[in-house]
Design brief:
It contains four helices and six strands. It starts with 11 loop residues before the first helix and ends with a helix. The radius of gyration is 14 Å and the shape is globular. α1 runs parallel beside α4. It has a single domain, classed as Beta-Lactamase (2-Layer Sandwich), CATH 3.30.450.40. 34% of the residues lie in helices and 26% in strands. By secondary structure, the protein is an alpha+beta fold.
């Protein structure tokens, strides 16, 4: 396990390239899911300074708030509702450049302007989502998608 997170400045790709091995070191050998999700959310928040980053896990027929970093968040989200619910329903990553233009967006924070949601898929079933919000418009792109999908794939559920 890493003792301290090394924050890297540079391009988005360089930041992810430096962060990925650190995240893998944080979760390697740890079997507690909550601990791993908490450390991943913290590492992403520290590196990228996003407004909010965290996880929702599927419990019964809702996404339920799990470890996160940032302001208080919506606790439960129905399938198909908001960006997180849409990502769950479609089983695909959704990038929203401006959440005000996303039909049915759930405004957990009025400060959120752009968002990316990555589904956690195991055995062809969505079991949760990784959600990140930024105060800046058009903040997330295919680079974020690529690396966040890699991070999500590395989590043992």
């Amino acid at each position: 396990m890493a003792d301290d997170l090394q924050i890297v400045k540079g391009t988005k790709q360089e930041m992810y390239e430096a962060l990925l091995p650190q995240i893998k070191a944080l979760i390697e050998g740890e079997v507690d899911l909550v601990a791993n999700l908490a450390n991943i959310a913290a590492a992403l928040k520290e590196q990228f300074k996003w407004l909010w980053v965290g996880f929702y896990l599927v419990k019964k027929e809702e996404l339920v708030l799990a470890p996160f970093q940032g302001p208080v968040a919506c606790t439960r989200i129905k399938k198909g509702r908001g960006v997180c619910g849409a990502s769950w329903q479609q089983a695909q990553t959704i990038i929203v450049p401006d959440v005000a233009k996303f039909p049915g967006h759930i405004a957990c924070s009025s400060l959120s302007v752009s968002e990316i949601v990555v589904p956690v898929i195991r055995n062809n079933k969505v079991i949760g989502v990784l959600d990140a919000d930024s105060e800046k418009e058009n903040w997330f792109d295919e680079t974020d998608q690529q690396y966040l999908e890699e991070i999500v794939a590395s989590i043992v559920f």
